[in-house]
Specification:
The chain is an alpha+beta fold. It contains 13 helices and ten strands.
Length: about 375
Amino acid sequence: MRGSTKLFTIFGIDIELHFTWWFVFILLSWSLSATFFPHYFPEQTKEMYWMMGITASLLLFVSVLLHELSHSLVAQAKKIKVKSITLFFFGGVAGITKEEMKPSTELQMALAGPFFSIFLGVVFFLINRLNVNFFLTAISFYLYQLNFILAIFNMIPGYPLDGGRAFRAILYWYYKDLKKATRIAVAGGKLFASFLIILGVFALISGTGAGLWFIFLGGFLYFIANASYEQVVLKDVLEDIKVKELMQKKFVSLSPEMEFSKFIRKYVNNDEDVFVVKGKSFTGLLDLERVGRLPDKMRDVVKLKQISMPLHQIKSLKMDDDAYVAFRKFAENRLNVIPVVEKGKLLGLVSRKKIMHRLVWEMKFGKLDGMRSKIKRKRK
């Protein structure tokens, strides 16, 4: 995910940290050190409160990571590949390759997180009751409450919360329609998010500092809920369109040994941004958006193959792939054009522009669904 930094890999899953985590981490550490711990554990030094606030914030992050890992491990047990987990602090987004799954599988995945948070809450509660030392008692006092709150909060039946995912799984089982199930679950998620925002505004007006957290959480949930439904609609439309329908079979093929200056002079009026660079020992793509500004002297020296991306480094498409697979690979490759390759041979190109044009056409007019149905009936 853009804006994320990879931390490490565990169980074959890349753990990434979104840049927004730092904002919440600093704000939470300050809030705990300035208000929470001084209220419940008075007469300590400012340094001690800051140490407690930072430690509690980091351990809360670990709790959230374990919560998200429990979802992913259940997915892996169901033979669903999980590429990564991007953490935002109070939650995360898993990079799951298989988006449509059995309702029973999604239900188990959704419930795994809250159940593990309850387990962590019990562990921290027992540590707190042991009262080993002041520092550990204070930290566990905060963490057992937060893990219980995290479990209860996530069980609210509004998408994208775990309870909302469980609710969607039940709706999907009942309606046999993922889009309809997602629309209903997302409506619940938006309603709850709006409630949090309104609650936060009233809290701020009344002088309660927690209002900022409610507004932040509500806005985040509303955005994710809306994006989740758009993703399902996007998949529903694009998965019926094959790559071969959109593939550009004719393209300009440039010599890998061509100087960049010669290329500029020859194709300055060409409206393409991506070119195929192909020779006996090299095949790749020249994406002008990825080429930095070259000094005039360098343009006569640099060959196209030196600034092109080799074909073997690009996650290419196959003829039978659908447009949704292509859409995902645009993000993975960070390219606007993806090559279509079969048995090592370049057959054509698919552009993001072509797919977006087709998507707008389908969403606005919806004519091609009926046309495809008629074609299928004639073939039968």
